[in-house]
Design goal:
Layout: E1 17-19, E2 22-26, H1 29-40, H2 45-59, E3 69-76, E4 79-85, H3 95-100, H4 119-130, H5 135-148, E5 150-151, H6 154-167, H7 175-181, E6 193-194, H8 197-209, H9 212-216, H10 218-230, H11 236-241, E7 245-247, E8 250-254, E9 257-261, H12 268-278, H13 289-309, H14 326-333, E10 352-360, E11 365-373, E12 381-382, E13 387-388, E14 419-423, E15 426-434, H15 439-451, H16 457-462, E16 466-470, E17 473-476, H17 482-490, E18 494-496, E19 506-512, E20 518-522, E21 529-532
Parallel strand pairs: 17-18
Antiparallel strand pairs: 1-20, 2-10, 2-21, 3-4, 3-11, 4-7, 5-6, 8-9, 9-14, 10-11, 12-13, 14-15, 15-19, 16-17, 19-20
Helix pairs in contact: 1-2, 1-5, 2-4, 2-5, 5-8, 12-13, 12-14, 12-15
Length: about 525
């Protein structure tokens, strides 16, 4: 039987998932199941998240990997904890090194954009502080998937094909990428079994040494050696010095709820600014032109502010909390009129990330996100390890005076953001929408879908989305009602309708009610599932 796994000619929907003993939602079914297995073994939500995150590096390598970064918001016994596990630029790399090679902007691929990988250290930090099961147990499913293989899913196959085209233009620097990720001289097709024995060995080393091999042992030495041999900047000392940072989440009140994001260097602040602007208005209908217009205009203002100031927190020209003060939000709100307004030019791009949410029967929950940034990342894979190094440094500026100017040991403006919702001090649950600069836009839309329009978690994710691109240009999904498209065009928005919905992000939501019942939704634009117990 022959068929196209990406062809769906008829409308469909998923029902909201309901459970009370545990739930894991992510963009790949096998990874969600790995997390659920930990809950059934007696683990908590954090155990489930670490197992899911590790599995995702294997079963969705197009979006994340061992060489990426991670962030989390954890709710344990009703208290929120934030973790920033994003790595800095190498201490041997400065802006003048990049400019001296003839680059006017940070390159997207090769060694220049490679920063210290933080994801593995993030897993270890979460596990040490909140985990209950042995680390070897948490990584067991991921090791099994890597060693024994798994069938490639439809959206994954599409992303792999796109990556193959990208790295085909990168030359010898990407040679190991092709050996590991295209061993038959092509990307694996949907349904084809893909194995990664190098990845399995690396995961086993991480499990056996509780992460030490990655930052101060055999794997760190392999990364350092490959950089030295091929003109890279990342050194053993950069890896050995890295430590994740526990941070206090920031929040803004939105229509009776508190929406939580992590402080910079992430862009969660953008979502909070936009929601803070919109909090002064009531929204009675999602499918009203005024709703779309105000959402878009608030996001444009917030994104413009974010691009001006967000970077490593200590390097920001203003404290993040000042951007959430009512007076400042009111000034921004006053700039929104009845027609689209041209903002400062900011050009969002589409990138690869994975998001997961997990909850257990005791009320513990986690919002977790990790990424290699642009798909597989820099195109550099460390020989014999399966470690694809991220290209997060591509977000740095080379213009002195910019907030996000590249400096040795500095963390860049980060796109990946986990979200969390509470009400009157009670945790409601984790949410997230991955996808580069789409992420704060997705956070704004799913929160409004849930809070203003009372959509259940699945319906909140199913709903059609928009994405601001630049200037007054906004992309709308094909399923946005025709009258909205026409009305937005009449008031100055430059409306485009892409053929693919790949750029509109992929989200997960888990809400917990006052009786302890969990309700979850998973992204219909991806391969994922909500695994329940």
């Amino acid at each position: 039987m022959r068929f196209d796994p990406m062809f769906y000619p008829y409308p469909s929907r998923r029902m909201v998932s309901v459970a009370n003993r545990g739930m894991v939602a992510t963009s790949q079914s096998l990874a969600a199941q790995a997390g659920l297995d930990m809950l059934k073994l007696g683990g908590n939500a954090v155990d489930a998240a670490v197992a899911t995150a590790a599995a995702l590096t294997v079963v969705e390598p197009t979006s994340n990997g061992l060489g990426g970064d991670a962030f989390a918001i954890v709710a344990i016994e009703g208290k929120l904890y934030g973790l920033n596990s994003s790595g800095p630029a190498p201490r041997s790399l400065a802006a003048h090194d990049v400019l001296a090679k003839g680059h006017a902007e940070m390159p997207k691929y090769g060694w220049f954009p490679v920063t210290v990988p933080g994801a593995v250290a993030g897993w270890i930090a979460l596990w040490r502080r909140f985990g209950t099961l042995p680390l070897k147990e948490l990584l067991r499913p991921a090791i099994s998937y890597a060693a024994e293989g798994y069938p490639v899913t439809p959206v994954l196959a599409e992303g792999w094909k796109a990556a193959y085209r990208v790295y085909s233009a990168q030359g010898s620097e990407a040679a190991e990428w092709f050996r590991v990720f295209a061993p038959q001289g092509r990307p694996p097709a949907c349904g084809e079994i893909w194995r990664s024995p190098d990845h399995a060995r690396t995961l086993q080393l991480i499990a056996d040494t509780e992460g030490e091999a990655f930052y101060r042992g055999e794997l760190a030495e392999a990364i350092h050696r490959h950089a030295q041999e091929t003109g890279g900047f990342l050194q053993y000392e950069d890896l050995a010095a890295f430590q994740p940072e526990w941070v206090e989440p920031l929040s803004v009140r939105y229509h009776g709820y508190d929406v939580w994001e992590l402080p910079p260097n992430g862009q969660g602040l953008v979502a909070l600014i936009a929601l803070g602007i919109l909090d002064a208005w009531e929204f009675h209908s999602k499918d009203a032109v005024e709703t779309y217009h105000r959402q878009i205009e608030a996001l444009k203002l917030a994104m413009t502010v974010g691009k001006r100031v967000i970077t490593e927190r200590g390097e920001m020209p203003v404290e993040p909390e000042m951007l959430l003060e009512p007076e400042y939000l009111a000034r921004l709100r006053s700039r929104i009129g009845h027609v689209a307004q041209e903002p400062e030019a900011v050009i969002p791009e589409d990138h690869g990330t994975v998001y997961l949410a997990a909850a257990d029967g005791d009320g513990n929950m986690i919002s977790f996100i990790q990424s290699n940034y642009m798909g597989f990342g820099s195109g550099i894979v460390v020989p014999g390890t399966g470690i694809a190094l991220q290209n997060r440094g591509a977000g740095f500026s080379l213009r002195e005076g910019d907030a996000n100017y590249l400096k040795p040991g500095k963390r860049s403006y980060h796109t990946i953001i986990p979200g969390f919702l509470t009400k009157d001090g009670r945790p409601i649950g984790p949410f997230g929408v991955m996808g580069g600069f789409m992420q704060p836009q997705g956070h704004l839309q799913v929160i409004m879908n849930a809070v203003d329009f009372q959509l259940n978690p699945q319906a909140a994710l199913d709903a059609p989305r928009w994405q601001w691109i630049a200037g007054n240009t906004v992309e709308l999904e094909q399923t946005v009602p025709a009258h909205i498209k026409a009305a937005l065009a009449r008031i100055g928005h430059k409306v485009t309708i892409p053929l693919s919905n790949a750029g509109f992000g992929r989200g997960q939501i888990i809400w917990r009610d006052s009786e302890g019942v969990l309700m979850g939704g998973t992204e219909p634009r991806a391969d994922g599932a909500v695994a329940v117990w």
